[in-house]
Amino acid sequence: MKKLILSVCLLPLLACSKPDASATSAAGSASAAAIGAAKPPTSAVASAPPAAPSAAPAAAMVEMDLSSADPVWKGWVASGPAGAKVMADGVKGARIAANGMDAFDVAFGSASASLKDVKSGNAAAVKSGNLKITYLVDTADKLEWVTEVGTSKAWNFVSNYTASGKKVSCQTNTAMGASSEAMFNQLKAACATLRKK
Asked: Looking at the predicted structure, is the pLDDT value of residue 29 above 60?
C-alpha cells in the first residue's frame, strides 16, 4: 500500500511536465531522482504558498449523471465539462475526466477519505526523492497542497464533506493533479456541485 501511495504522489510530477525539451529533460531527471535515487531529499514539507500560474479559461460545465460509475451513485449528479466521461474510480468511487494537458479530472468517494493516509503518502514521497510538498490548507476535513520537482508543479486536494445528507469525499486525481491553479480551482468548485436528485 505504501508503494502505491508513493507512486500516486509522484505521478503528478511526471505527467504534468510541459512538452518542451528542457521541461521534458527536467521531468525525466526529476523522476529518476524521485523514484530511484539514493540521495537524501533536498526539500521538506513547507507551509508557504507557491507562486500562482497564469489562469486558463474555464470550460463550460454541464450536469453529469454519476450512476454509471457504481450502483452507490444512482441518482447522484455533479458538474463536469461537456465531453468529459464518467467512470468508476477505485472502490465505489466516481470520476469525471476529460482528455488533454491540464484536463478536468476529479474523483468522488462514497465515504470520507483518510487524510492521515494522504499525508503519510506525501511524507514518504518527500523522503524518497527530490521533491517538495507545500500544504496550502491542512484542516481536519481538507488538505490542499502543491508538489514541485524542479520547475514542474501539480496542485492537489482531498476534501471530506456532506452532500445531500451523506458523508463523501472529493479529490483531484492524485496520479495527475492539476497543472494550473485555474484548473485546481475549477476542480474544487465541481466538488460543491455533487448532489442527489
From this structure: no
